[in-house]
Amino acid sequence: EVMAMKIPRVTAEPARFGRQASAADFGSGEGLYALGQATTEIGEISIKLFEQEMAGMVAHASSEASRELNNLRLEVDQEPDHHKRSGMFAEGSKKITSKFRAGLLFPKYQSLYDARVARPLEMNRMGVDQGVRQSQIDTARAGRRVAIEDLLESYQETYDPKERARIRADVKKEYDEGASGGIWDADYAAQQFILAENRMDQQSVLM
To answer: Using H for helix, E for strand and C for coil, what is the string for the chain?
Structure first.
């Protein structure tokens, strides 16, 4: 008797070589959420620490720049030619602020540095400008006083009434122009001219 051959039957279900994965293999859903939260918090802490680190670098850079700007001003003030001082400070301060700014790398922190260093930069610049103005005033005063003294000596050396009247007018002009130019005030000019007149009147009595 011939036995019939059995043909293998293909089933709809795939062959199983193990069990299906479940959430338990990876922990509960709550555990995954907590892990994600922890990762996020660590990232936020890292960002905050970086920002604090950079803020500290900004504070240090601006402090060092301020100190060097103060020293620069002292050096500039020693320059005998006061006409050079403003240019010297502008050039030196640019080098100083740029040097410390370059180390901060990121535009955000460079901007914070610029804001912090702006005040000492401006204060020192104003100090230099004030020193220049004072030197200009001192030079102008010295020049006027020399001119006035020369006129008073000329008054003493001449006996011509017309020449003496001209000299007296020139002395008053020197004081008036000094007052209008801001190198001394009007009250000072008036007082000094009275003293000069007294000297000239004494010379007139001695004629």
So the answer is: CCCCCCCCCCCCCCCCCCCCCCHHHHCCHHHHHHHHHHHHHHHHHHHHHHHHHHHHHHHHHHHHHHHHHHHHHHHHHCCCCHHHHHHHHHHHHHHHHHHHHHCCCCHHHHHHHHHHHHHHHHHHHHHHHHHHHHHHHHHHHHHHHHHHHHHHHHHHHCCCHHHHHHHHHHHHHHHHHHHHCCCCCHHHHHHHHHHHHHHHHHHHHCC
Q: How far apart are CA 71 and CA 50, in angstroms?
A: 32
Looking at per-residue pLDDT, the higher value among 57 and 47 belongs to 57
Q: How far apart are CA 47 and CA 50, in angstroms?
A: 5
User: What is the pTM assigned to this prediction?
Assistant: 0.68
Q: How far apart are CA 92 and CA 135, in angstroms?
A: 21
Question: The tokens of 44 are what?
Answer: 């936020």
Amino acid at 59: A
**For 13-46, what is each residue's pLDDT tens digit?**
444 444 554 545 445 556 555 556 656 666 666 7
pLDDT tens digits, one per residue of 144-156: 999 999 999 999 9
Give the C-alpha separation, 168 to 189, whole Å: 14
Helices 107-157 and 85-102: angle between axes, nearest 10 degrees: 170
- What's the token pair of residue 180? 């209008």
